[in-house]
Design a protein that fits this description.
Order of helices and strands: EHEEHEEHEHEHEHEHHEEHEEHEEH
Largest sheet: 5 strands, parallel
Strand order of the largest sheet: 6-5-7-8-9
Number of helices: 11
Number of domains: 3
CATH class of the largest domain: Alpha Beta
Helix content: 25-40%
CATH superfamily of the largest domain: Cobalamin-binding domain
Shape: globular
Structural class: alpha/beta
Length: about 300
C-alpha cells in the first residue's frame, strides 16, 4: 500500500466522518486544526483511495488537494535576525511552504552576514541538520555568495536548496561543490510578496523543494525504514499520554525518516524508547532516541531495514 500526502479542507460539521474514513483505510492524520469555521486536515492516505475520500467529502463542502510536503520538516535559514534579512523574503517563503503541508522553522544565524565575518556555529549546524531539508536565503550579490557560502554549508549533511538574487545559472556556476536545488532571482527585498510574478517565484521554490525531497524519498525506498514515521507517531500518542498536554500545534512533528517529540528528553526518553509497536518490538529497537538541540525536545531517528532486519 502506497501512502501519499493530501490536504483536506472543509467545514467543521461532520468532518469526523472524513477522519474516521482516513483511519479506516489505513491512513494517518498528521495534523488537524480549525480556522474559523473551516477544518484543515493534513494526512497520509492510500493512493488508490483518494477519490473515495473526495466523494465522501464533497457533500460536506470538503476539498482534497495533493500536498507533497506533508510529513516533512524544513529549516528556512536566514543570514541574520536583522530587519534587512528576516521579515519579508524569509518569512513569506516559510509561510508559503507551510501552506503546502510542511512544518517550517526559521533559523536566524548569529554571524551569517558579511563576506569576511560569516560563520556557522555548532549549535546552528546541529539544529539545521535535525531537519529534512534546509532552504538558505542568501543575498543579492554573486561575489558575496561565492565567498561566504562555503563557510555556511560546512557540516550540513541534509539536502540544501539555495535562494539568491542572481539567476539560477549564476548560482550553479558560483556554488562549488553543487547543492541539491537552486532558485534564482530571489534575494533580499523589503516588501511582502503580493505581485503575480512574486507568487510564481514562491511556486517555483515549492516545486524545487518538492523535487529534492522526492529524490530523498527514492533513496530511502532503496533501504526502507523499519517503521513508518506516521505509524510511530500514533504509537507514541497512544502510549505516552503526556503528549496530550503539549500546547504546540504539532506536539509530534513527522519527518521523512523520523519524528520530533516535543517533550523533555530527560523525563520522557525512556518512556518513548519502551513504547511497544508490535509483537514485542519497541521504539528503541527500530529507532535512535536522541536529545534535540532545539529546546529540550526528543529526536527520533528511524533506522533502515539493513540495520535492524525488522519491518513493522
Amino acid at each position: 500500500m502506497i501512502l501519499v500526502p493530501i490536504t483536506y479542507k472543509g467545514g467543521i460539521y461532520r468532518h469526523d466522518e472524513v477522519v474516521d474514513l482516513i483511519e479506516d483505510l489505513g491512513g494517518y492524520i498528521i495534523q488537524k486544526h480549525a480556522i474559523a469555521g473551516e477544518i484543515v486536515i493534513q494526512a497520509l492516505v492510500p493512493r488508490d483511495d483518494i477519490e473515495l475520500i473526495r466523494r465522501v467529502g464533497k457533500p460536506l463542502m470538503g476539498d482534497v488537494t495533493p500536498a507533497p510536503l506533508v510529513g516533512t520538516e524544513i529549516a528556512v535559514v536566514s543570514m541574520s535576525l536583522e530587519i534587512h534579512h528576516l521579515p519579508h523574503a524569509s518569512c513569506d517563503i516559510a509561510e508559503y511552504i507551510r501552506r503546502n503541508g510542511a512544518k517550517t522553522n526559521m533559523v536566524g544565524l548569529a554571524r551569517g552576514f558579511g563576506k569576511r565575518v560569516a560563520q556557522l556555529n555548532d549549535e546552528e549546524r546541529d539544529v539545521i541538520n535535525e531537519h529534512d531539508l534546509a532552504i538558505y536565503m542568501l543575498g543579492n550579490f554573486g561575489t558575496c555568495i561565492e565567498q561566504k557560502f562555503p563557510v555556511l554549508r560546512r557540516g550540513i549533511d541534509i539536502p540544501i536548496v539555495v535562494c539568491g538574487g542572481p539567476d539560477k545559472e549564476t548560482l550553479q556556476k558560483i556554488i562549488d561543490p553543487p547543492v541539491d536545488g537552486y532558485v534564482g532571482n530571489v534575494g533580499r527585498f523589503m516588501h511582502r510578496t503580493k505581485e503575480a510574478e512574486e507568487l510564481t517565484k514562491l511556486d517555483e521554490i515549492v516545486a524545487e523543494v518538492t523535487s529534492v525531497l522526492d529524490h530523498r524519498r527514492e533513496e530511502i525506498a532503496k533501504d526502507p525504514l523499519s517503521v513508518s514515521p506516521a505509524r510511530l507517531m500514533e504509537v507514541i500518542e497512544e502510549q505516552v499520554p503526556d503528549i496530550g498536554d503539549v500546547t504546540s500545534p504539532t506536539p509530534i512533528t513527522v519527518q521523512i525518516a523520523g519524528l520530533r517529540v516535543k517533550l523533555p528528553y530527560d523525563t520522557f526518553a525512556d518512556q518513548v524508547k519502551a513504547a511497544g509497536i508490535e509483537g514485542g518490538i519497541t521504539v528503541g529497537d527500530v529507532a535512535d532516541v536522541l536529545p534535540s538541540r532545539m529546546r529540550d525536545y526528543i529526536l527520533v531517528r528511524i533506522k533502515p531495514f539493513s540495520e535492524t532486519n525488522i519491518v513493522v
